[in-house]
């Protein structure tokens, strides 16, 4: 008889744990409440519960990512896998942050949640939990989001629907698992892990995301520097364009970079990412000191910059 994998079940709240109140949906269910509601999960592993917090994910802050990475590190040798319930609104940020903080991860860390509370009869939470625990029991190493009909690498995920139960998309990389009309499609990561596992979970929260829009004035960059921000993610047009004429951003970018602020560019487009060598606006931005985020999502780029500023004092390629 095969032994069940030891899984640490970490809960943080979100829609999955909500109950209906006079003030709307409020997180209420503990990890044990969730297991009692979905008892079949116990067939997928030897589960230990640790409730981390009970909030709407819109209220989470970067320091909590550090704390949760620390919890996983502290329990790494005792468990075979980790499942984390989370609200959908900032799940992609948390999954990305954990993917940078958990170095040489050799075990599954799987995030999941729901669009409809588990307390309601039509909830998608039950199927999402079963998928998450199945991935956890598989031993596949990495940080993943298991949701709807997909399993996605943590730093490739983006929430694209506010209500649809297939809320997340895998951006610029095929999902690890996709369940469609034609069966299951796989893009499984290697099970090989190079080097020993470690946690580098410091974070620099003073990072701002700025979306380029027609008419936006470049003094927004000077404002960010004056307010003490250490990093800026520019969500740029197309392949990485910024305004270089009437509202010329280049002088403000140069001032910020000279002041020690790191600026990374990602695309407002969902797919394909940025290429700062393609158009003059991107080439000039790169010459001014903007770093390319390549195919990364905003969530991945923002959390990586927060992580890199805190953990890599020696400047290196983004």
Radius of gyration: 20 Å
Overall structural class, as computed from helix and strand content, comes to: alpha/beta
Q: So how many helices?
A: 8
Q: Calculate the terminal CA-CA distance, rounded to whole Å.
A: 47 Å
Overall geometric form: elongated
Strand-residue proportion: 25-35%
The low-pLDDT segments are none
Structural notes for this entry:
This protein is an alpha/beta fold and 318 residues long. 27% of the residues lie in helices and 26% in strands. The chain contains 8 helices and 18 strands. It has an 8-stranded mixed beta sheet with strand order 4-1-5-7-8-9-12-13, sandwiched between helices. Strands 15-16-17-18 form a 4-stranded parallel beta sheet, sandwiched between helices. Helix 2 (62-74) crosses helix 3. The termini are far apart. 45% of the residues are buried. The mean pLDDT is 94.
């Amino acid at each position: 008889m095969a032994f069940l994998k030891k899984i640490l079940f970490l809960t943080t709240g979100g829609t999955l744990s909500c109950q209906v109140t006079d003030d709307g949906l409020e997180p209420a269910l503990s990890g044990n409440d969730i297991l009692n509601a979905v008892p079949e999960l116990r067939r997928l592993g030897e589960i230990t519960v640790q409730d981390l917090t009970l909030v709407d994910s819109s209220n989470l802050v970067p320091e909590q990512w550090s704390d949760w990475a620390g919890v996983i590190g502290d329990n790494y040798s005792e468990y075979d896998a980790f499942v984390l319930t989370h609200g959908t609104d900032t799940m992609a940020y948390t999954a990305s942050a954990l993917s940078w903080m958990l170095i040489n991860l050799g075990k599954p860390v799987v995030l999941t949640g729901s669009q409809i509370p588990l307390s309601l009869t039509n909830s998608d939470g039950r199927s999402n939990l079963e998928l998450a625990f199945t991935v956890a029991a598989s031993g596949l190493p990495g940080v993943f989001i298991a949701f709807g009909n997909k399993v996605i690498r943590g730093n490739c995920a983006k929430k694209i629907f506010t209500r649809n139960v297939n809320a997340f998309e895998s951006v610029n990389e095929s999902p690890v698992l996709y369940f469609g009309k034609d069966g299951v499609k796989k893009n499984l990561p290697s099970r090989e892990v190079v080097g020993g596992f470690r946690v580098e979970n410091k974070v620099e929260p003073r990072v701002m995301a700025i979306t380029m829009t027609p008419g936006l004035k470049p003094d927004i960059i000077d404002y960010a520097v004056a307010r003490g921000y250490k990093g800026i993610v520019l969500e740029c047009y197309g392949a990485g364009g910024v305004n270089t004429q009437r509202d010329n951003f280049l002088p403000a970018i140069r001032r910020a970079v000279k002041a020690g602020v790191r600026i990374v560019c990602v695309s407002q487009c969902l797919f394909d990412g940025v290429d700062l060598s393609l158009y003059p606006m991107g080439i000039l931005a790169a010459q001014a000191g903007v770093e390319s985020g390549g195919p990364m999502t905003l969530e991945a780029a923002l959390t990586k910059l927060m992580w890199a500023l805190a953990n890599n004092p020696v400047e290196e390629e983004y």
